[in-house]
């Protein structure tokens, strides 16, 4: 393994050894991309990684529903060919985004429609274990698991030269591993801001959008029953509660119930059922009350979206970048984190190819990196702000300029109750397949503003909702 110190010219650092801190989705995808340009890549992960799909301590969110948005799946597939087919072979469900997904939002059912949008539904541990297996198989990548990173090594100019790490049970004995590039993929809890301060750099300013949300999740045996949906979401204001039920491998349902702010969350099965029964429509409850629970109720509290403004720092050491939740962790209800990590990994590939063409990492590589991912993070972050800053609890943070856009998006939501074209376009934007500007093109604008309204009485189950859209023009066109 290329752990030896690298000789660096004054202009470009070598592409010999890269270290990725954190072996979760962002770290694994980054490692895959780094393996194209670096001689060797080492992933350092504090958890012992099981070869089989299992929840693990370092990723507690893994017990809860993880929607892989279609852009994220496409990018992961491009990096790891065959991933999607193998996931399906292992029990992931391939669903039609338009037909199989039933979504009750803002008091109505979005139009179910024919669409070329598909998505894969599986547990997060299955996805991660398959990604990890492929990265482990790369000839020039090594996963060192059960090893905790505890600090950065730097030279007299402040350039990062490697990391310090520690194994449990060694009484704090540290080892140093040298690298030309260190990638922080340690997630939201990353210690890199503190480590930067230790070596004389200012840590990034952190921004919080404090829409806190708690999740309670449970798996159920999936009964062989005919339903008019294969995945179901119940969400949207004014209700402080939601519900999602998605098929996962092992013929199971994964049911996640989100509650905002101080909503009391269920701890046991009876409470879980009662919470499901209190949702805006009965469909989720009607399904799970018949199903056998297969797990305990798992809970997770998320205190708000957190963005570290690395791109605004005047001084940042060479030889270090960050990716994924370490830069920005988003309100999970929008399902963006893994996809943003994949988009960032793709951007890293482009930047590294450029570095390789120019003989190594330029001295401003880190700065270029944070500049390159800024629009990627902005796209998801702005979406979170638009939605979360409607919440009365966060009203004081709500800038006036967001209001016209929020109003328009409210109209889009209502239009998804009656227009297949608007629903499809909305799904494509949500899945990062189209730019949000597509929601303003003339055909969609006309449907949103002038196509009348459709409401159904509160609590109408999908089976009793008016059939079919008013405007049956599927596809975003
Ligand atoms: C409740 C919840 C639900 C979510 N739902 C979705 C969803 O539906 N769709 C979606 O796309 N995203 C979702 N996300 C976000 C998603 O989990 C993350 O965006 C995604 O996992 C990428 O994160 P990451 O790899 O950057 O960090 P993480 O997944 O947090 O992983 C960090 C890794 O670093 C390791 N680590 C930490 N410190 C050290 C150290 N000192 N040394 C070595 N290793 C270390 C950890 O063990 C872990 O493996 C959800 C998040 C939460 C909290």
Brief overview:
This protein has 477 residues and is of the alpha+beta class.
| Oligomeric organization of the protein chains | single chain
Low-confidence stretches: 1-10, 468-477
Largest sheet: spatial strand order: 6-5-15-16-17-14-18
- Provide the β-strand percentage band: 15-25%
Task: Outline the biggest β-sheet.
Answer: 7 strands, mixed
Number of strands: 22
The structural class is alpha+beta
Averaged pLDDT:
92
Euclidean distance between termini CA atoms: 51 Å
What is the general shape? globular
Q: What is the CA-atom radius of gyration, in angstroms? A: 23 Å
Which ligands accompany this protein? flavin-adenine dinucleotide
* Helicity level: 25-40%
Written account of the structure:
The protein has 477 residues and is α+β, with helices and mostly antiparallel strands. 30% of the residues lie in helices and 22% in strands. The protein has twelve helices and 22 strands. It has helices at 25-34, 70-79, 83-89, 124-136, 192-198, 269-277, 283-288, 337-357, 365-388, 402-415, 420-430, 442-450; strands at residues 12-13, 17-21, 40-45, 93-96, 101-105, 108-109, 118-121, 141-145, 148-154, 160-166, 174-178, 181-184, 206-209, 213-221, 231-235, 243-248, 252-260, 298-302, 305-308, 320-322, 328-329, 361-362. The strands form six sheets. Strands 6-5-15-16-17-14-18 form a seven-stranded mixed beta sheet. Helix 8 runs antiparallel to helix 9. The longest helix is centred in the last third of the chain and has 24 residues, at 365-388. It is globular and about 70 Å long. Residues 1-10 and 468-477 have low confidence and may be disordered. The site of flavin-adenine dinucleotide has 37 residues, from helix 1, strand 3, strand 9, strand 18 and helix 8.
């Amino acid at each position: 393994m290329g752990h030896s110190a690298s000789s660096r010219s004054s202009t470009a650092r070598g592409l010999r050894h890269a270290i990725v801190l954190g072996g979760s989705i962002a770290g694994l995808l980054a490692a895959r991309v780094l393996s194209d340009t670096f001689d060797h890549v080492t992933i350092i992960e504090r958890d012992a990684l099981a070869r089989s799909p299992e929840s693990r301590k370092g990723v507690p969110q893994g017990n809860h529903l993880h929607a892989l948005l279609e852009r994220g799946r496409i990018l992961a597939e491009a990096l790891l060919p065959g991933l999607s087919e193998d996931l399906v072979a292992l029990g992931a469900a391939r669903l039609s985004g338009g037909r199989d997904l039933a979504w009750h939002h803002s008091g109505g059912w979005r139009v179910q429609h024919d669409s070329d949008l598909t998505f894969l539904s599986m547990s997060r541990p299955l996805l991660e274990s398959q990604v990890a297996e492929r990265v482990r198989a790369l000839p020039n990548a090594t996963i060192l698991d059960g090893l905790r990173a505890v600090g950065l090594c730097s030279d007299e100019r402040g350039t990062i030269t490697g990391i310090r790490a520690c194994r449990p049970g060694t009484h704090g004995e540290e080892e140093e591993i040298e690298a030309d590039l260190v990638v922080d993929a340690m997630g939201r809890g990353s210690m890199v801001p503190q480590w930067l301060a230790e070596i004389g750099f200012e840590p990034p300013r952190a921004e919080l959008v404090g829409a806190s949300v708690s999740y309670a999740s449970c798996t159920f045996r999936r009964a062989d029953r005919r339903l008019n949906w294969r995945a179901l979401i119940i969400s949207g204001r004014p209700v402080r509660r939601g519900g999602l039920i998605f098929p996962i491998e092992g013929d199971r349902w994964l049911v996640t119930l989100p509650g905002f702010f101080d909503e009391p969350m269920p701890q046991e099965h009876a409470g879980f059922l009662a919470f499901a029964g209190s949702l805006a429509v009965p469909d989720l409850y009607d399904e799970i009350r018949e199903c056998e629970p297969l797990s305990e109720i798992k809970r997770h509290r998320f205190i708000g979206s957190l963005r570290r403004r690395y791109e605004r720092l005047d001084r940042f050491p060479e030889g270090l970048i960050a990716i994924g939740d370490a830069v920005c962790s988003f309100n999970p209800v929008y399902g963006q984190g893994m996809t943003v990590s994949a988009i960032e990994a793709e951007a890293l590939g482009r930047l590294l190819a450029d570095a390789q063409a120019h003989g190594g990492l330029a001295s401003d590589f880190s700065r270029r990196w944070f500049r390159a991912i800024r629009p990627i993070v902005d796209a998801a972050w702005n979406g979170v702000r638009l939605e979360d800053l409607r919440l009365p609890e966060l009203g004081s943070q709500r800038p006036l300029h967001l209001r016209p856009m929020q109003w328009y998006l409210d109209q889009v939501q209502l239009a998804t109750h009656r227009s297949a074209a608007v629903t499809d376009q909305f799904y494509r934007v949500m899945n990062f397949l189209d730019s949000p500007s597509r929601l303003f093109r003339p055909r969609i604008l006309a449907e949103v503003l002038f196509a009348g309204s459709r409401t159904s009485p509160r609590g109408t189950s999908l089976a009793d909702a008016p059939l079919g859209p008013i405007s049956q023009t599927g596809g975003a066109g």
